[in-house]
Amino acid sequence: IRAHHGHAEIQIPGHNIKLGAGGIREIEFFVQTHQLIAGGRDPELRDPTTLGMIEVLQRKAQLTAADAGQLRDAYVYLRNLEHRLQMIDDAQTHSLPSALDGLAHVAAFVGHSEAAELATTTRLHLGRVAEHFQRLLAIGEHARSRTGNGAAAQQAQASTAELTLEFADPGKARAIITTWESFRYRALRTGQAQELLRRLIEKILRAIAATSDPDTALARFDEFLSALPAGVQLLALFNANPKLLELLAEIMGTAPRLADALARKPALLDAVLSAEFFNAVPGPEALLADLENALRQARDFQDILDLARAWANDRKFQTGVQLLKNLIDGGGAGRALSDIAGAIIRALLPRVEAEVALKHGRIPDAAMAVLAMGKLGGRELTFTSDLDLIFIYPETAQHSDGKSPLAAAPYFARLSQRFINALTAPTPEGRLYEVDMRLRPSGGQGPIAVSFDSFKKYQTDAAQTWEHLAMTRTRPVTGPEPLCVEIATAMREFLARPRHPAQLARDVDAMRQRIEREHHTGNIWDFKYSRGGMIDAEFIIQYLILRHASQTPQLITGNTIEAINALRLAGAVNERQAATLRTAVILQRDAQQLTRLCLQQGFDATTAPPALCKLMAAQAGAKNFEQLAERLRTSQVNVYTLYREMIPEAESPTGN
Predict the structure, then answer these.
(1) What whole-number distance in Å separates Cα of residue 311 and Cα of residue 322?
(2) Cβ proximity of 281 and 314 under 8 Å
(3) How big, in percent rounded to 5, are the helix, strand and coil portions of the chain?
């Protein structure tokens, strides 16, 4: 508009208050820009009115009360002025008169005492709007850079060169900056992207230099920039939100896996602009309500899959950033990730049922329950965890009532497979989860969905000890309430049955020996399989639950830390033993959450980003990474010693 109509300067005589600088259109563009950035995920940002959107942006902390007030006052003032301009000659005009007597006429009509007062008030509103708009899109600085301000350009280049000295390899840093300034990357091909980058280079370098590993952060930021399909929107966001740039620099230096995710989906950063982003992830019911609200936009089943993935990605990213910023620990991350997965399961299952019903109908008075096991069952999910699930339906002789009716077994098998596909299928928004069904009755040889009677009979008569160990962390996630109550009651009954302690110990250790043969490691950073690691701690806890649950059923809690506390309360472990287990679980849980968030592969202390090592130590309360490593070694020795105290070694590694 400015290039075509020449409305770049605020000149009161003849100024176009709609299309000119600081005019009505810039207020509209300001709110519409925010709508285009985040309106896809936040229905509240779809208010069609300008004043309504200003109020929404203020409520969501995208505008301060003062800034919102300025935009609101300017919009009302300029709209009133526009109406009066058009009323004077009954003409479709948006420009102030050029002559002084015309300005005096408008001033009197608006209610000002003279033309000078009109000019002062109008210039005040136009100037404020222009400032807000320029700050959002960096237009003012770009315009000045195009006029050939050589001194400013030289000063900026000098500042950039000085900043590269903050890097261990300043030559490489300067080479990266030179590549950016050549605009060879796809995201930098437009004029506006190039001008935004010129304005931001110094800020980018300062943010990266402030990280604990500037060279690594700069290299990853370069990879991130090179992978972007477009740059204007994101660079404008950085210009308007310096804190966002600081966060991205921190991610680049600490979390390669998260950086790669952002390179594939830079829109994830939009979520950071939400006022609630750094608040604790809400509980299960609030998450479900939020997801249901997002899914109301869906036009078809494919939309449901895409929207569910976008929602889950946003919430996982929120949890990851909060862990990275040390706002939550590994336990908080595990609960949040598990509740996010739970909301997805609860929201998707009825929609998959509706899809299956289009062809096969429904089985009257029979619906399926989904059981969570493993880390999801204990609300201890990590950023890379599979979902361990079991599907159970009530015993029934009825067939479905659709045009292609099915008996219960094939019907619920088909429903289960469609549901797994809904969770695992890749779409343009990515993949939700991998699903592991190996813990279902009879494992990989068993049916994908089982009737409740079959499930109960298998667990009572055929399940081996290792399967009951796994069942200590099982809970229904969704399904008909009566069926879920029946399942929970049955699980408690067969977990709490009396067991022979010596045989139980032999079974547990035989299973541990088998795992040791398959996954032996001397790496203390292999938190799962290392001797004294998570498996040993969990086996101790699960062994004690099965041993004592017949006298103390309340030991069956699902969550590992809650189980330790319950065992101590019941006297199954003393305070020293409980402290050993609690320390080991928390130390390794927190470190595991961070490494799975940040790294594509397992943790290698010799190649891990120094910033990540520093963060792991800080989260554990250690002075440095070396002290963290020593604590980990000591903890694992203590756990393995406790394991051998409580679980005698099996005579032979036979059986499970």
Answers:
(1) 17
(2) no
(3) 65, 5, 30
CA dist list (Å): 409 to 181, 366, 448, 450, 577? 63, 12, 9, 7, 47
Q: Give the tens place of pLDDT for each residue, 251-293.
A: 888 888 888 888 788 878 877 877 788 888 999 999 999 999 9
Residue 383 and residue 340 in contact, taking contact as beta carbons nearer than 8 Å = no
Give residue for tokens 């961070």. 594
Buried b (16+ CB within 10 A) or exposed e, 26-37: bbeebbebbbeb
Within 10 angstroms of residue 286's Cβ, the number of other Cβ atoms is 12
**Is residue 480 exposed (0-12), middle (13-18) or buried (19+ Cβ within 10 Å)?**
middle
The answer to whether 237 touches 269, Cβ cutoff 8 Å, is yes
Residue 163, helix vs strand vs coil: helix
| CA separation for the pair 261, 268 (Å, rounded) | 9
Q: Hey, what amino acid is at 286?
A: A
Instruction: Tell me the pLDDT tens digit for each residue of 383-440.
Output: 999 999 999 999 999 999 999 999 999 999 999 999 999 999 999 888 899 999 988 8
User: What would the DSSP string read from start to end of 104-149?
Assistant: HHHHHHHT-SSHHHHHHHHHHHHHHHHHHHHHHH-HHHHHHHHTT-
